[in-house]
Amino acid sequence: MGSDPGYLSRHRQKLKLGRWRALYLLFIERLDCRSLVEVGAGSPESLSLAPAAVTEKHAIDAGNEFQADFERRGAVFHQCDLDAGAGPELRNIDVAVCSDVFEHLRTPLRTLGMIADMLGPEGVLFSHVPNEFLWRDILPILRGRKEAVLYHGGFEEWENPHLRRFSDIGFRRFLETRFTFNLKITEFHYEKWPRRLVKFGIPVPFGMEPGPTYASTNSPQVYQRLCAIKEELLKNRKATRSQLRELYRKGEELGLK
């Protein structure tokens, strides 16, 4: 994340695979990539569950609390303060993951540029930031019933780890500073009412969506491949949900005690 050395320790109980990283793994498996880097990696569940075809794995994080765990699971660990430190000299990486990280950074464009430089010409970035404009969260704040620290209980507002708040429009513009093609994959985790709106052809308001989630690349060929994978996974929703549940189960088994 940023430079808070106690961040992971204070939220150890929440460390798990997570629904977005599980989704990325379904895409990664179908992309048949060989190298993978996770930026702001946190703990090693995601890299541990990477497809067998991924023979080169890297984890980048500000704290080294889980360095031994990453290395035990076959990942090279790089300690780096994303707001200030020099990134590792990685090049021609196939896939990068940066999930729930950009909102923690003082200079997110710096990290986005570092990721773009690490990827090869056909590289892909999977990224997600939370939606802090959800109606169900905003209304209690507006009514004076709730504080504005939405995702990190235990922190006061003046120490909120989230330094940035992204809309879908703003996050896409952010990604477009380094990536030409950006495929939205947020709808994989729509809840009941957004799914119903989609069924009837009604655009889903941002206040009902999960946080912006994208697969980004500078290759038109890879972008078409990503579109085909998305169509396949959405068409076979029952199988996709089953695969995600299995990944969640494996992630729970790998979770650090």
Structure description:
With 257 residues, this protein is of the alpha/beta class. The chain has a single domain, classed as Rossmann fold (3-Layer(aba) Sandwich). Helices cover 38% and strands 16% of the residues. The protein is built from 10 helices and 7 strands. A 7-stranded mixed sheet has the order 3-2-1-4-5-7-6, with helices on both faces. Helix 4 links the parallel strand 2 and strand 3. It starts with 6 loop residues before the first helix and ends with a helix. About 2% of the residues have low confidence.
Write a brief structural summary.
By secondary structure, this protein is an alpha/beta fold. The chain is 38% helix and 16% strand.
Task: Order the strands across the largest sheet as they lie in space.
Answer: 3-2-1-4-5-7-6
Q: Distance between termini? A: 21 Å
Which residues sit in consecutive blocks of at least 5 with pLDDT less than 50?
A: 10-15
CATH topology: Rossmann fold
Radius of gyration: 18 Å
Helix share bin: 25-40%
Elements, N to C (H/E): HHEHEHEEHEHHEHEHH
| CATH A-level architecture | 3-Layer(aba) Sandwich
CATH structural class: Alpha Beta
Tally of domains: 1
What does the overall shape look like? globular
- Summing up helix and strand content along with how strands pair, one would put the structural category as alpha/beta
CATH superfamily: Vaccinia Virus protein VP39
- State which percent range the strand residues make up: 15-25%
Give the total of beta strands.
7
Average of per-residue pLDDT values: 92
Number of H/I helices:
10
Q: Characterize the main sheet.
A: 7 strands, mixed
